[in-house]
Amino acid sequence: MPRPAPFLAAAACLLGAPLIAHFGILVPQKDVIDPGVESSIRLSAAFGHPADGELLGGAAPSAVGVVIEGEHQDLSEHLQLHDEDGKAWWSLDFAISTPGDHIFYLNPTPYWEPAEDIYIAHYVKTLVTVGDGGEGWQEALGSEITPAELVPLTRPNAMCAGNSIRAQVLYHGQAVAGAMVEVERLHWQDRSGRALNPPTPLHETQELVSDEHGIISFTPPASGWWGISALIEDEHQEAITGSALSITHPELGEKAVEVGAVLWFYAYPLAWADE
Q1: Residue in 26, 28, 20, 27 with CA at minimum distance from that of residue 49
Q2: What is the C-alpha to C-alpha distance for residues 244 and 230, in angstroms, rounded to an integer?
Q3: pLDDT per position as a tens digit, 229-245
Q4: Whole-prediction pTM value?
């Protein structure tokens, strides 16, 4: 999303206001499931600030589904609505029926952000593996399912803190070069354990830029759930599809839509065999 002007950023730091990002959130209770022990998977979906655990609410996702070894299922009708301090979030229970890699995805209803004068639409993915493994983790969902995605080039559910994850930013199937990418650790529902204490506000949201092939790399410094959000701005949209997205606000007229391609992964703490 657009960053504050330098003088506003400085003022925010002086006032102690964190410069944290908006993220679409889709995280399971676990990312590796033993089918002999567990018969279902529960995922939580929300929109908010992962770094401080604040939810922003918004409308229900337009679609939620899963792709298992190339087979697609729409799960939208199974979403359950919840409330946290007046902000909506959703849960999804999915019955396990087959082993392998499960790519869960969420397509949003765009969120109006008055502070930035834009709509935000984050397309979110996360991987759950049932059993010993699968072969679908690195596959793109494709634009017929989602227009924007981060396609992992590193298996995202075999990560430890200190491992580097690589992914490619795609919009309508084409690589997005020069996309601003934001990374935050999730501090919501105690999913990541103890909260981090960032040295400065700049450490709450890590920033990087995709290369000429749309590829990014990030090394989580601590265990927990981490979200990577590649921001596909109007110039990227226009370069790939010939037009930039917009939505007519009921009172303010045409407004731009910031598209985010989001990937969630869990970085495990290292453990020694003799512990």
Answers
A1: 20
A2: 16
A3: 999 999 999 999 999 99
A4: 0.91
